[in-house]
């Protein structure tokens, strides 16, 4: 983000997410998401959201990976709060 701000260019973090569908994957995912929030990364995209062709990694509100969507919703609220403070 330091370089991004200095260059006045947005930082894009592409295709992140947990590699597995189990809760044991949560700590790694949360560390990455916390970093996105902490550094106020303006653009990030989840790996394989609602794409049936990638069912092994697909994240939907009705499957075992739904917890990632909940975490992202919470992160978005934090980012909104940080933005509102400015």
Q: How many β-strand runs?
A: 2
Major β-sheet strand ordering: 1-2
**What is the approximate shape?**
elongated
Question: Poorly predicted ranges (pLDDT <50, ≥5 residues)?
Answer: none
Radius of gyration: 14 Å
Strand content: 5-15%
Structural class label: mainly alpha
Q: What summary fits the major beta sheet?
A: 2 strands, parallel
The span between the termini is 17 Å
Number of alpha- plus pi-helical segments:
3
What is the N-to-C order of secondary-structure elements (H for helix, E for strand)?
A: HEHEH
Q: Level of helix content?
A: 40-55%
Mean pLDDT: 88
Oligomer: single chain
Considering the chains and any ligands shown, give keywords for the structure.
86 residues, mainly alpha
What does it look like?
- With 86 residues, the chain is mainly alpha-helical.
- The chain has helices at residues 2-7, 26-38, 66-84; strands at 12-16, 43-46.
- A two-stranded parallel ribbon has the order 1-2.
- The longest helix is centred in the last third of the chain and has 19 residues, at 66-84.
- The two termini are 17 Å apart.
């Amino acid at each position: 983000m330091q370089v991004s701000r200095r260059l006045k260019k947005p930082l894009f973090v592409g295709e992140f997410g947990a590699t597995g569908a189990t809760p044991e994957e949560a700590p790694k995912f949360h560390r990455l998401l916390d970093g996105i929030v902490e550094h106020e990364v303006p653009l990030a995209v989840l790996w394989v959201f609602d794409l049936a062709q990638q069912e092994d990694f697909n994240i939907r509100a009705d499957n075992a990976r739904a917890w990632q969507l909940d975490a992202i919703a919470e992160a978005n609220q934090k980012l909104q709060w940080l933005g509102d403070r400015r």
